[in-house]
Design brief:
The chain has about 60 residues and is mostly helical. About 65% of the residues lie in helices and about 0% in strands. This is DUF3012 domain-containing protein.
Length: about 60
């Protein structure tokens, strides 16, 4: 029974992860702007700075 619950949760997380925009995309930057800064992880803050603030659209 415990295995089924774990497998179900893993499957659900995998499906949800497939729906989120790619890190660094315009949609991801917009999602991050709508998220309170206190909820960002250190990696998200770094990726936001790298991909959204310092982006060069050459």
């Amino acid at each position: 029974m415990k295995y089924c619950v774990t497998a179900s949760l893993l499957a659900a997380l995998t499906l949800l992860a497939g729906c989120s925009p790619e890190v660094g995309s315009k949609a991801w930057c917009e999602d991050m702007e709508a998220t309170p800064k206190g909820e960002w992880t250190a990696n998200e803050a770094r990726d936001y700075a790298k991909n959204c603030l310092f982006r060069s659209d050459d």
